[in-house]
Specification:
By secondary structure, the protein is mostly helical. The chain is about 60% helix and about 0% strand. It contains eleven helices and no strands. It has helices spanning about 5-15, 20-30, 35-40, 60-70, 80-90, 95-115, 120-125, 130-135, 145-150, 160-175, 180-185. Helix 2 crosses helix 3 and helix 7 (about 120-125) crosses helix 8 (about 130-135). The longest helix is centred in the middle third of the chain and has 17 residues, at about 95-115. About 30% of the residues are buried.
């Protein structure tokens, strides 16, 4: 089964902007119905909503069709499914020169939205280097002004998965809350 690029962010957008049932949203996003209910009940979110219409994953007509009939199900557009299949075959490794700038935008986006992640974690997520991440974080990178003009989520670009970012954030929060990290901070 194929799911949208950012399932939780897509689910949040569908909850806020449509009258689809939790079951319909859960089926489309590959989540459990209770996860969708928890997203709907939460007052604050650690992720941003992502419109599946703007990202080209579904059409407004598909949503309206499913809103009219709760037994109908949303499906990804065939172009997205084919793209995901090609991506799975190819795997992550060499990044063509044309997409390398996207990697910098992705690093900038993660630094901006998840400042709690260390440079090393971001470098591993984005297959970059610690000095590159540090220069973007310190705003000293040669093309930083260009990065500030517009950054698209690396998840939408297909450079990293949403689950990988959320796992890294959970790990960073766990490390920040551990007694060892608190004692190290006190010694400094």
């Amino acid at each position: 089964m194929n799911y949208p690029y950012m399932p939780k962010s897509t689910a949040l957008w569908l909850i806020e902007n449509t009258s689809l049932t939790f079951e319909q949203i859960a089926d489309f996003c590959g989540l459990h119905e209770l996860e969708v209910k928890n997203i709907a009940d939460a007052e604050t979110y650690k992720f941003q909503p992502l419109s599946p219409i703007l990202s080209g994953q579904i059409t407004r007509a598909d949503i309206e069709r499913c809103e009219a009939n709760p037994s109908e199900r949303l499906t990804l557009r065939t172009e997205i499914i084919e793209s995901q299949k090609a991506q799975n075959k190819r795997g992550i490794g060499y990044t063509p020169k044309i997409h390398r700038q996207n990697r910098l935008f992705g690093v900038w986006w993660i630094v901006k939205h998840y400042p709690e992640l260390s440079d090393g974690q971001i470098a591993r997520l984005m297959h970059s280097t610690n000095p590159t991440v540090a220069s973007i974080r310190n705003k000293t990178h040669a093309s930083y002004a260009e990065l500030e003009k517009g950054g698209v989520s690396p998840i939408v670009l297909g450079l990293v998965s949403e689950s990988a970012i959320l796992e890294a954030v959970a790990k960073a929060e766990k490390q920040a809350a551990s007694p060892k990290s608190k004692s190290k901070k006190k010694k400094k």
